[in-house]
UniProtKB/TrEMBL annotation:
Its EC number is 4.-.-.-. It comes from Rhodoferax aquaticus. This is 6-carboxy-5,6,7,8-tetrahydropterin synthase. The keyword Metal-binding applies. Pathway: Purine metabolism; 7-cyano-7-deazaguanine biosynthesis. GO terms for biological process: tRNA queuosine(34) biosynthetic process. The lineage of its organism: Bacteria, Pseudomonadati, Pseudomonadota, Betaproteobacteria, Burkholderiales. Zn(2+) binds at H15, H30, H32.
Amino acid sequence: MMFEISQRFFFDAAHTLQREIEAEGSRRVHGHTYHAEVFVQGEANASGMVMDLGFIRREVAVLRESLDHHFLDEVPDLGTPTLENLCAYIYKRLKPILPNLSAVTVERHSIGDKCTYRPAQG
Ligand SMILES: Nc1nc2c(c(=O)[nH]1)N=C([C@H](O)[C@H](O)COP(=O)(O)OP(=O)(O)OP(=O)(O)O)CN2
Ligand SMILES: [Zn+2]
């Protein structure tokens, strides 16, 4: 049987964003609380687990340090601090440690924005 387990976390960070609409506030330095979730797929092993969620939580905590209370415009390898690039950044950081990482979501609850990155199969 195939399962998908996940771990949620949040981080607070500042950024600027150049936009064609609603541009004024976005281009000034401002902050958000981002809510992220990482998903790992697989069969359950002899212990009845796809993977110990404690292991995922530990790796997420290390990754979180690179984002929480940071100015996202200056985070190396992130690029323009959009939800899309945050998903890609988290995926690229965790994939080598979590080979069965199947998706990453990042959202801003305050405004209802959400992005999901799920790599193409194959
Ligand atoms: N495809 C995307 N579109 C937009 C993104 C994105 O990441 N990907 N991001 C934004 C803005 O950052 C988002 O709408 C928030 O706007 P912002 O000016 O940063 O803040 P607000 O004051 O509008 O929201 P609060 O969270 O209430 O502060 C737009 N499009
Ligand atoms: Zn913003």
